[in-house]
Amino acid sequence: MKVAVLILTLSIVLAVFAHMYMSEVPKCPKCGSTLVWTPLGTKSENFLWKCLMDGTTWRKTYPDHVFSNWKRRIPQIVRDASMNYLLKLHPDVKPFFPSGDWEQEKDGNQYVFGQNGWTVKITFTADFSKADVRVDYVHQGLGIMHRVVWIAEFNNGDFREISYTHAV
Question: Taking CA 136 as the corner, what is the angle to CA 139 and CA 163, rounded to the nearest 5 degrees?
């Protein structure tokens, strides 16, 4: 009986530590956001960091496992940062801004996310430091029809808007 309790206890402790180890990600020291960026493919990679929410910058080298966890989340980080940047520049989209979980498709270095009439298409370069971003929204259901198309470039943590259309 004691052996079974010991094995169960050790299993729980190992599971908790494994979860903590795998879920740790860099966060902004000011606002706590996990939408952060480091310049990929440069000497500053995993050293100079920038918050994509409030622009805070800091210097820190994260352990390899933390940096690897962050790199696995790059498509979701760029998606969420793109949507936040769109909302910041164009608050007219706020009434029908999405919330909830996104569906994801992947084809090579292209990611397509969708939910509730919104589509975010991100095409990355091979090293993931740059991307072309296209956000589309088509109103679904009754009421006033809206169509939003936003095109931007993402370059190592910075966005450059190419075009924006909101047709009613």
Answer: 125
Secondary structure of 25-84 as H, E, C letters: CCCCCCCCCCCEECCCCCCCCCCEEEECCCCCEEECCCCHHHHHHHHHCHHHHHHHHHHH
Per residue in 23-59, pLDDT (tens digit) is 588 999 999 999 999 999 989 999 999 999 999 999 9
Provide the sign of the torsion angle of the four alpha carbons 146, 147, 151, 157, taken in this order. Answer: positive
Contact 156, 129 (CB under 8 A): yes
3-state secondary structure of 128: coil
Which of 91, 93, 156 is CA-nearest to residue 120?
93
Domain boundaries, the chain: 1-72, 75-168
CB 88 within 8 A of CB 124: no
The CA distance from 77 to 45, in Å, is 16
- Indicate the pTM of the whole model: 0.85
